[in-house]
Specification:
Number of helices: 1
Number of strands: 28
CATH topology: Neuraminidase
Radius of gyration: 19 Å
Distance between the termini: 30 Å
CATH class: Mainly Beta
Order of helices and strands: EEEEEEEHEEEEEEEEEEEEEEEEEEEEE
Strand order of the largest sheet: 1-25-24-23-22
Shape: globular
Structural class: mainly beta
Bound molecules: calcium ion
CATH superfamily: TolB, C-terminal domain
Length: about 375
Amino acid sequence: MRSPACAIPLFACLAFAAGCGDGNETAQSDAGVPAARESGTTAHFALRRVASGLVRPTYVGAAPGDHGNLYVLEQPGRLVRLGRGGRARTLIDLRHEVVTGAEQGLLGLAFHPDFARNRRLYLHWTDRRGDTRVAEFTLGVGGRRELLFVDQPEENHNGGQLAFGPDGRLYLGLGDGGGALDPHDNAQDTETLLGKLISADVDSGGRPSWRVELYGLRNPWRFSFDAGLNDVWIGDVGQDGVEEVNRVALEPDEPPKNLGWPAYEGSLRLPDASLDTSGELVFPAAEYTHADGCSITGGVVYRGTRLPELAGRYVYGDFCTGAIWSLEPKPGHGAGDVRRERARQQQLTHIGVDSEGELLFASASGDITRAVEP
Ligand SMILES: [Ca+2]
């Protein structure tokens, strides 16, 4: 049965009475270039529905070595495999362990790069106490390996995305712990995992130690690696004004970089928040205001072949308005040519790719769509 459409934005920002508009300065990026903003419209693709009736899907993608099926997470706790023709089969059911709220539930999935051989996959969810859990599962084998527990002080800002980096480590984006304007002072505290991009070596057995890769994040709901340019792209959900696209070069020998929150919301300086200056401050490559949305869903750099006009462009969208944009990574750093795509996807929760690198979109409405020629 199709789940009812939800009129309330899943990841909408909390209202904050003090406001953020007075006395703020607009900052420049670390490269001295302002964050790119929308400069027109285009139609690189249209959307075609490939499945419906799923329960608040939060992920769609393909597994290494599996060219026929798609894999979908449902927010209340199921991992589902969709065969050709859309037939769904439940592979893992955590519904009795998962709490589902606006930003809580089964939030992230990553397949081990060697999944075709070892059948290992990784799930991130909010448990019944509202805390963060990550575990390894082996398809066809019972049991699991617990990899991470993080106490969550609030219901919101739990991050979500899991992904393997080009270095073979498992990465997780965690939000600042919730509330408005990081009241627990987590994002600039490099001693806590909240408000961070973190990683672990999951191939060494036992319970891994997690390392902070980036700090100063508010709620990195979705991020992706682009092996083509050795970047990580992060959609960091904003507070009351600005949604941001961050593009960060992977430099494992450098100290963790600082994405600014809560001293900065996008390139906007917020009052009264101090910065930990141990890491290089990185400003967004692109941003948009709440005139155009209210909760960014970070996407991927398109490396498929069926849409040649889109080649090498980063595609992302907004949960609240369904807007989708694509932009062009600039050589070395930053972004330009931000175009609003004519296609829209309401309640956009995730942008993934199939085994050929072609784009897939998940909607909390229950639909999975695919980018096709316009
Ligand atoms: Ca930021």
